[in-house]
Amino acid sequence: MHDNPTPPEAMTYREGAYVIDTRSGRLAQVMGTMGPRVQVRRPGGGREWEVSPQALRLATREERAAAEGCAECVSLRALQRAAVDGGEKCRAVEATVAVRRHVREVHA
User: Whole domain around residue 86: which residue ranges?
Assistant: First the structure.
């Protein structure tokens, strides 16, 4: 029997996942990790901020749907996710730029 149990592992999130920063209630997308911290950004762009994984939770389907926008947003983000999941860095960057351009030009 152990006197000092190991704390549970923090949840890990893949790049592009929608999460909620429970400290502020803000919806964000995971951009990457820096050491023990997770870097997140508002969907569609903006300034990144760092959060401990313990302060994040996955966004619900309803929270994601509210952020996804129009059909073109959904399509562009699906292409982005496929490129990221496939490890195609150049395509992932191009898809990310396309998503941000669309959000800026159509939903600004």
Answer: 69-108
